[in-house]
Write a structure and sequence with these properties.
Layout lengths: L1 H8 L2 H6 L2 H14 L24 E2 L1 H4 L22 H8 L3 H4 L4 E2 L1 H5 L9 E2 L9 H8 L1 H9 L21 E2 L9 H8 L16 H7 L2 E2 L1 H4 L36 H4 L5 H4 L10 E2 L2 E2 H6 L16 E2 L8 E4 L4 E4 L2 E3 L3 E4 L7 E4 L5
Antiparallel strand pairs: 1-3, 2-4, 5-8, 6-7, 9-10, 11-12, 12-13
The structure holds heme C (9 copies).
């Protein structure tokens, strides 16, 4: 197979000039390059590794020097012949930092097989001699990510602005899983640290870094620094790129499926059982107040009516207030936690308290 592909990929004159021994060696190098998917399946034309004519955007110093024989067997530019070594060895012969780079905990398979999966060795119409514009380069092989990107109703601008995929990934290798340039938590907060960010729905987004700095009681997964426990980093089809359903409204008719994000980690029974003496501490005696609030006909509250999901100042991630109406006014919850229960005052209702256990 690879021999056939090789014959089609070089000019006839050149193929004739090559000795059989060198021919076999180059076939080996060729075979290495063709990791799946093929260049054609990535939308790349035949001959994409040849020197570009016209005005390339970037060029390789050794090629510019005209010394074809640094990499090919001949110095003659008309007949440079096959390579002197398999391609990756060839590149690493000069790029001496790469052998140790590729030994980091996570190396990118196409960089291990052949540098020419992404770089033209001579020059190119893109910076760094890349075969394509970065986004296309990555999604040419990562078709699933491309499909997700095209169909996301809640896209993540991080993928389509600035350095695109390289905002978060290293193309060669990384100490961090998934070739990330930083630990995911630090990565997310490296952008989500401004007050000016606006979501896909046109609403202003919280400055998450400042919020976490100012609210010391962090939710379990945040304590584990795991933003992707709940969010899809590449965008998705749920509100706020969430991994599961979560209502975007303040009031919503109770349906367990609407909260499957929370219920992947918390037991749904604790919210749908009217009477209990153990499933939740938000109960008055045996009357489950989660049930009461969530399942109120016509005006069921969503979790956000009472809880912060990332971090809070108060215990149990109870929020201090909820924005009410479009004017930005905040309705205070005035929640007080006690050793046996708690109370809310002058809030959605008159002061009310609950006791989940008897005073000692
Ligand atoms: C830094 C190393 C390097 C230098 C210098 C270099 N080449 Fe190449 N060249 C390569 C590699 C790698 C390939 C890809 C071979 C393959 O397909 O495996 C290649 C392939 C080619 C091809 C065939 C492209 C194809 O479609 O398969 C031509 C033509 C070519 N080089 C011409 C030249 C000429 C002319 C020079 C000197 C002016 C030159 N090269 C200098 C590394 C180099
Ligand atoms: C003969 C030595 C030599 C070989 C072999 C070599 N390179 Fe280079 N490469 C260089 C030099 C010199 C530079 C310029 C260094 C600089 O700008 O700091 C360079 C720069 C680059 C750059 C950066 C270009 C830019 O615009 O910043 C890339 C990408 C690159 N090489 C890829 C490759 C690949 C892929 C191969 C194998 C096909 C390869 N190199 C083989 C010497 C080499
Ligand atoms: C999966 C695609 C891909 C493969 C495979 C790949 N590179 Fe790169 N390389 C890139 C991208 C993308 C950049 C640009 C990085 C940037 O702009 O931050 C780059 C940049 C570079 C640079 C410029 C300096 C730097 O580190 O940013 C060099 C040198 C380089 N690559 C060499 C290599 C060598 C040598 C190999 C093979 C061992 C290789 N590349 C394999 C995608 C790739
Ligand atoms: C020539 C094909 C090819 C190109 C181009 C390519 N990749 Fe990959 N990538 C692979 C293969 C093969 C794997 C390993 C199998 C898999 O996870 O799909 C991989 C794996 C990955 C992984 C997962 C690594 C892990 O440790 O789990 C990430 C992240 C990734 N690539 C990002 C990128 C980015 C960003 C780019 C663009 C700079 C890119 N890829 C370009 C083929 C490619
Ligand atoms: C905002 C940061 C960010 C950007 C931008 C980004 N990624 Fe990722 N990517 C991640 C994180 C975080 C993970 C790890 C997800 C996990 O562990 O569940 C990941 C995982 C991956 C994986 C391996 C797992 C999987 O989902 O298949 C691939 C492949 C990948 N990314 C490719 C890409 C490509 C291609 C692009 C550009 C179109 C891109 N990424 C842009 C953050 C990002
Ligand atoms: C390179 C910068 C950058 C990085 C890194 C980044 N984001 Fe974003 N994020 C943005 C921008 C810009 C927006 C707002 C614009 C948009 O996407 O519509 C955004 C929006 C969001 C939104 C709201 C989406 C909506 O429209 O409802 C969430 C949630 C989010 N990011 C989570 C994350 C998580 C989790 C990570 C880490 C895996 C992360 N971001 C990493 C830049 C970034
Ligand atoms: C336990 C699940 C969970 C984890 C973990 C999580 N989030 Fe969220 N995130 C949510 C939910 C739910 C929302 C929607 C909140 C709402 O609208 O009430 C959200 C909303 C957001 C928003 C939009 C905020 C706004 O103003 O509307 C951003 C940005 C965001 N998250 C970033 C992050 C970052 C960064 C991390 C990691 C530090 C993270 N999230 C971890 C569940 C989570
Ligand atoms: C990835 C798993 C995960 C998801 C998803 C998740 N949580 Fe949690 N949650 C935890 C962990 C772990 C704790 C800490 C439990 C502990 O400290 O005993 C916790 C604690 C809590 C607490 C405080 C309990 C206490 O005793 O301090 C509340 C309130 C809470 N979560 C609400 C939510 C809401 C609302 C959602 C949905 C938006 C949600 N959680 C989604 C894992 C999760
Ligand atoms: C009307 C306000 C309110 C609503 C709405 C609400 N909670 Fe709570 N929740 C509380 C209070 C108050 C506590 C603290 C109970 C205690 O420890 O005394 C609590 C405690 C919790 C706990 C800790 C374990 C327990 O039950 O004692 C979790 C987990 C939790 N809530 C998750 C959720 C989820 C998930 C939702 C949405 C499906 C939700 N809550 C909706 C007020 C509310």
């Amino acid at each position: 197979m690879s021999a056939i592909r090789y014959i089609f990929s070089v000019s006839l004159a050149w193929a004739v000039a090559i000795s059989t021994v060198l021919f076999a060696q180059t076939v080996q190098a060729q075979a290495d390059i063709r990791v799946s998917p093929t260049f054609a399946a990535r939308g790349l034309p035949a001959g994409v590794l040849a020197p570009m004519t016209g005005k390339p955007v970037s060029a390789h110093a050794p090629f510019e020097a005209g010394e074809c024989n640094l990499c090919h067997v001949n110095k003659d530019p008309k007949q440079p012949g096959p390579l002197i070594k398999p391609v990756t060895q060839l590149c690493m012969g000069c790029h001496e930092e790469f052998p140790s780079k590729l030994k980091l905990a996570h190396a990118h398979p196409p960089a291990q097989t052949a540098c020419t999966n992404c770089h033209n060795p001579h020059n190119a119409n893109y910076p760094k001699m890349l075969l394509q514009e970065t986004g296309q380069l990555c999604t040419g092989c990562h078709k699933k990510i491309a499909e997700g990107l095209a169909s996301a109703s809640v896209p993540h601008k991080a993928l389509t602005s600035g350095a695109k995929c390289l905002n978060c990934h290293n193309p060669h290798a990384s100490e961090v899983e998934s070739l990330l340039v930083q630990l995911p938590f630090d990565l997310c907060l490296s952008c989500h640290n401004v007050d000016t960010m606006v979501g896909a729905d046109g609403k202003k987004l919280q400055n998450m870094k400042a919020w976490l700095d100012n609210n010391p009681d962090w939710h379990g997964p945040i304590k584990h620094k795991d933003c992707v426990a709940c969010h899809q980093p590449h965008g998705g089809n749920q509100f706020r790129m969430l991994d599961g359903n979560y209502p975007k409204e303040f009031y919503a008719h109770y349906d367990p499926a609407a909260y499957d994000l929370c219920f992947t980690c918390h037991k749904e029974k604790a919210f749908s059982t009217a009477q209990t003496n153990k499933l939740t501490r938000f109960r008055n005696g045996e009357k489950n107040l989660h049930f009461v609030h969530l399942q109120q006909p016509g005006r069921g509250r969503t979790c956000r009516a009472c809880h912060e999901v990332h971090a809070s100042k108060q215990a149990k991630h109870i929020r201090e207030g909820v924005p009410y109406g479009s004017g930005g006014w905040v309705l205070k919850l005035n929640y007080q936690k006690t050793s046996t229960g708690g109370s809310c005052a002058k809030t959605c209702h008159q002061e009310r308290s609950y006791e989940h256990s008897k005073a000692p």
